[in-house]
Design brief:
By secondary structure, this protein is of the alpha+beta class. It has two domains: 204 residues, Jelly Rolls; 105 residues, Homeodomain-like (Arc Repressor Mutant, subunit A), CATH 1.10.10. It has an eight-stranded antiparallel beta sheet with strand order 2-3-4-5-10-7-8-11, sandwiched between helices. A hairpin with a 5-residue loop joins strand 7 and strand 8. Helix 7 packs across helix 8. The longest helix is centred in the middle third of the chain and has 29 residues. The protein is globular, with a radius of gyration of 21 Å. It starts with a strand and ends with a helix. The model has no long low-confidence stretch (mean pLDDT 86).
Amino acid sequence: MLNITFHHTNYHDLLTFYSQKFATPIVDQTVVFPDDAAIGKIQVITLGERIQCFLSDYTALQPAIVHRKKVDQQYFIVRFDEITEPGPNHTFITKSAASITSTTTDWIFFENAGAQVRSVNVMVDNAQLQQWLQPGEEAELVLNYLNTPGNTPSYEPFDTEYKFLFDPVFQHTYTDTLGSFVVQNRINLLLERFFTRLYKRLSEEHFDTKVSVYDLERLRDIETLLTYDFSKTPPSIADLARKAAMSTSKLKQIFKETYHLPIYQYYQKHRMNRAKAMLISKKYSVKQISDAIGYEDVGSFLKAYKKTFDEQPQLVTA
């Protein structure tokens, strides 16, 4: 299984990382995969002067786990993804969706051999989002939602309109003038549709956060401290409250409002997710994983894993 782990917030740097990992050159901001890894390519293009897009168009020849590790610097990644995988009786199953994620959280993608991957990823910061959105209520509502850490990432399956805009991105060559115009135009229209629909959904749900921007910043620090090193005993709630400069009762209340789980349930959820990612990588033994996420004995880890995922870790590594 291929293991691809990165933390880049610049797509040109990410392309260089792929070029080095697969020992293949960058030509016209494009990396063509070697024959033993995949059939196809990845590419970086720029919208306007600053906005970077990462395009993927390939068929995987071996299974892979792709892990974007979280970083402190916040960017938003608007994703338009289509994955087609072999199904039963020589059929194919296609899943496609638009979503938005943040670089302040981990993102993990499991890719099976034979999967056909087409994706458009656009990385933006708050300032660029404000330029896209209309000043006033629309920008305030969307930015407030995206900057609240515990909110579920916006996700919606492709409909016919999304497909109409998405397909031409992969049907034209970006290096010629007309193809470049079509690709940039379609990506801009995809972004416009995504944010228009996000604003409409938030308006209908009457989204509103009761947590101040100042408290959100402190919560992000607490969340980072809580999930930084699972091999160590997590800080006590009293220690976390002192770090956040608020009472324990306030910390517990606004943490649950923001992340939708009590503090230690949130910790345990991400602790187990880390364990599962390590298992799937097939690079670690159950004992090594148990040690890495802070269990004193393997038996306790096995019980916790079974409780979380309703399966034994050995089934994942088999």
